[in-house]
C-alpha cells in the first residue's frame, strides 16, 4: 500500500513539473514570437510610394504583393529615389517594361543603382555594332548573381571576334548563352576546330553557332564526339551528317540516344506507303530529328516521353505536320474545349483532322447544344472527333435546325454528280435553223399529202 502511495506521489510531482515546464515554454515561445513579429513588422517599413512605382513599371497587383514580401530587406535598405533612378537606367538600355518586370522578379538585385552605374559606363566599351536589350539583360543578371565584373564580358566579346565570329553571332551568344564567359579560349577554339574537322566549312561555323550558341559549351571529348559517333554507328554517311547539321544545326543539341530512339519508332510505323514516303522524303536522319521535335512539343504541353512516342506511333501523320499546326490544336483542346492533354492518347485522330473544317465546327455545335441544355449527358472528345461527318450530322445537327448554320453545308456534300456533256445553254446552238415558208412550199406540201389519200 505504501509503495502505491509513493508511486502516485512521484507521478503527481512529475505531472506538476511537466505542466510548469509546458507553461514556461509557452511563455518563452510567446515572448520570442512577439519579438519576431515586431522585428518582421520593422522590416516591412516600406515606403508607400514603392507599390505605386512598381505599378507604373508594369507590375500587377499580385506581383507587387509577392515582390514586396519576398524582397522587403532590399527595398527597406533602398530609398525610393535610388529605385527610380535604377529603373530609369534600365529603361535607357532599351529594356521593355515587361522584360524589366520579369528581370526584377528573377533577380531583384539588378535594381542596385551603384551596380547599374558601373555597367552604364562599361557598355560603351563593348566593341559591337548592335548591343541588344536582351543581351544587356542576360549580362546584368549573370553579373549580379555571380558578382562578375563587366570587364570579363568585354574580354569575351574580343575573344569571340578574334576567333572569326561576326558581331551578330557574338550578340546572339551573349543573349542565349552568357555563361560563355566561364569558358576559356582553348575550350572554345577546340570546339570550332572539331566542327571543322568533321567536314563543316569555316564559313558555315558562324551560322551554326548563331543558330545554337550553346554548342560552344559542349565538351568535345564528351558530348560532341559521342554524338557524331552515334550517328556513324547508325549507318549514316559522314557527308549526310555534315549536310544535315549545316541544314539544321539544332541536331547538335540532341541528347545521346534520342536519334536512335526516334529511328526505332520510324522503323515500326504502320501506315500507308504515301505517308512513309513523305516522312522519309529527305533522309532518315532528318526524319528522326522531325520525330524528336514533335516529341519535345508534346512533352512541353504535358505528355510524358513514353506517351508522346506512343501517340506518334498511333498517328504517324503528325510527323509531316507543322509544329505550329500541332500547337494550335493542343491550345484549342486545353484552353477552349477544356480537355486534358491525356485525352489525346485515346483520341489521337484529333491531331490528324482539319482544324478549321472539322474541329472548330463540331465544337461550336456541341457548345451551342450544351448552352441550351439539349444534351442529355456530357459529350467527350471521343464523341466529338470519332464519328464520321455524316454520323455527327445525323446525331447533333439534323435534329436541331439552328445548328445547320453553325455546322455549315452538308446536304449533297457526298453526292457524286456526273458532269453534263455540254454547258448549260449550249443546246440552243444545235437547234435546226428555221426558214420562212413560201406559198410554193405550202402548195408542194399539200400536193404531197393528197397523194396518200
From TrEMBL:
Taxonomic lineage of the native organism: Eukaryota, Viridiplantae, Streptophyta, Embryophyta, Tracheophyta
Source species, domain of life: Eukaryota
GO BP term (any one): DNA-templated transcription termination
Family classification: Belongs to the mTERF family.
Keywords annotated in UniProt: Transcription, Transcription regulation, Transcription termination, Transit peptide
Pfam families linked: mTERF
Annotated protein name in UniProt: Transcription termination factor MTERF15, mitochondrial
Nucleus listed as a keyword: no
Organism annotation: Cucurbita maxima (Pumpkin)
Molecular-function GO term, any one: nucleic acid binding
InterPro entries: MTERF, MTERF_sf
SMART domains per UniProt: Mterf (SM00733)
Amino acid at each position: 500500500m505504501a509503495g502505491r502511495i509513493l508511486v502516485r506521489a512521484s507521478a503527481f510531482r512529475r505531472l506538476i513539473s511537466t505542466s510548469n515546464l509546458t507553461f514556461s515554454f509557452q511563455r518563452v515561445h510567446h515572448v520570442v514570437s512577439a519579438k519576431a513579429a515586431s522585428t518582421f513588422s520593422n522590416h516591412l517599413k516600406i515606403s508607400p510610394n514603392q507599390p505605386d512605382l512598381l505599378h507604373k513599371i508594369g507590375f500587377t497587383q499580385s506581383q507587387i504583393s509577392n515582390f514586396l514580401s519576398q524582397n522587403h530587406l532590399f527595398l527597406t535598405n533602398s530609398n525610393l529615389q535610388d529605385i527610380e533612378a535604377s529603373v530609369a537606367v534600365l529603361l535607357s538600355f532599351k529594356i521593355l517594361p515587361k522584360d524589366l518586370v520579369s528581370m526584377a522578379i528573377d533577380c531583384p538585385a539588378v535594381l542596385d543603382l551603384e551596380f547599374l552605374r558601373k555597367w552604364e559606363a562599361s557598355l560603351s566599351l563593348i566593341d559591337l555594332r548592335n548591343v541588344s536589350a536582351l543581351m544587356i539583360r542576360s549580362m546584368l543578371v549573370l553579373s549580379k548573381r555571380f558578382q562578375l565584373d563587366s570587364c570579363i564580358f568585354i574580354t569575351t566579346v574580343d575573344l569571340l571576334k578574334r576567333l572569326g565570329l561576326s558581331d551578330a553571332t557574338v550578340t546572339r551568344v551573349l543573349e542565349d548563352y552568357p555563361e560563355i564567359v566561364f569558358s576559356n579560349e582553348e575550350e572554345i577554339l577546340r570546339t570550332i576546330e572539331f566542327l571543322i574537322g568533321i567536314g563543316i566549312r569555316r564559313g558555315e561555323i558562324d551560322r551554326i553557332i548563331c543558330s545554337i550558341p550553346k554548342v560552344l559549351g559542349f565538351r568535345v571529348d564528351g558530348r560532341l564526339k559521342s554524338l557524331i559517333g552515334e550517328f556513324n554507328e547508325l549507318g549514316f554517311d559522314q557527308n549526310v551528317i555534315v549536310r544535315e547539321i549545316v541544314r539544321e544545326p539544332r541536331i547538335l543539341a540532341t541528347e545521346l540516344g534520342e536519334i536512335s530512339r526516334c529511328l526505332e519508332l520510324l522503323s515500326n510505323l504502320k501506315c500507308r506507303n504515301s505517308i512513309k514516303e513523305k516522312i522519309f522524303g529527305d533522309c532518315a536522319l532528318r526524319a528522326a530529328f522531325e520525330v524528336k521535335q514533335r516529341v519535345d512539343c508534346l512533352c512541353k504541353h504535358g505528355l510524358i516521353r513514353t506517351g508522346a512516342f506512343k501517340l506518334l506511333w498511333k498517328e504517324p501523320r503528325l510527323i509531316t505536320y507543322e509544329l505550329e499546326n500541332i500547337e494550335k490544336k493542343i491550345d484549342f483542346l486545353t484552353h477552349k474545349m477544356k480537355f486534358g492533354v491525356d485525352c489525346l492518347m485515346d483520341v489521337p485522330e484529333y491531331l490528324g483532322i482539319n482544324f478549321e473544317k472539322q474541329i472548330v465546327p463540331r465544337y461550336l455545335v456541341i457548345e451551342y447544344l450544351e448552352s441550351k441544355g439539349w444534351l442529355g449527358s456530357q459529350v467527350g472528345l471521343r464523341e466529338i472527333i470519332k464519328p464520321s461527318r455524316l454520323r455527327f450530322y445525323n446525331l447533333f445537327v439534323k435534329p436541331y435546325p439552328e445548328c445547320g448554320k453553325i455546322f455549315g453545308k452538308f446536304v449533297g456534300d457526298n453526292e457524286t454528280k456526273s458532269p453534263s456533256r455540254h454547258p448549260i445553254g449550249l443546246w440552243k446552238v444545235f437547234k435546226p435553223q428555221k426558214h420562212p415558208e413560201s406559198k410554193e412550199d405550202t402548195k408542194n406540201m399539200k400536193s404531197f399529202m393528197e397523194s396518200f389519200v
